[in-house]
Design brief:
By secondary structure, the chain is of the alpha+beta class. It folds into 2 domains: about 1-30 and about 125-160, no CATH class; about 35-125 and about 165-189, LmbE-like (Rossmann fold, 3-Layer(aba) Sandwich), CATH 3.40.50.10320. It contains 8 helices and 4 strands.
Length: about 190
Amino acid sequence: MTVGELRKAELEKAAQILGFHRIKNLGFYDGNLHENQLPLLSDLIAREVDSVKPDVIIIYERTGISLHLDHIAVSKAVIDLFDAGRIKPQKIYYFGLDKEMARLAGGERAWVDSQNHGAVIDVSSVWQTKLAAIKEHKTQGADIKRMLKRYRQLKNNRGANLHHEHFQLARTTIDKRLSFPESDLLAST
């Protein structure tokens, strides 16, 4: 089994744990979404968005949290599609770390302004389920162990709250003024 096949199987297991009923893999290889793939990626994303018609789309913040080129390419494609009028979800959110957590974790570039322009979601009630899904990505085990170790250290040493996820509103079609921070990504949709 190739690494790509393993990662696809891991994703399917993780999605099942999270209760997802549908996953769409666009057929790219991990680490392969560089600039010359953006037109094809954009077309495939636009087709999926037109098919599903989501109210909300969540993408990684501009640096892909870990500087992963695939994360950056998908985020760029979604924003470019919205700005060009090709997709029209009511909201697009960047997912990232709050500024203090990013600073403590050494990834200052990966923060989002969830307090003034976004949402803070308490995931404590589903934390164990989320953790079980994360752990299904066994081919990325070293990265996951390193991340979880760092989070535990931050929590133990500095009281960081790992059970809150942070989102910054990147784009919206909603005309009315939104109140921040939101506690529900679907608020006002």
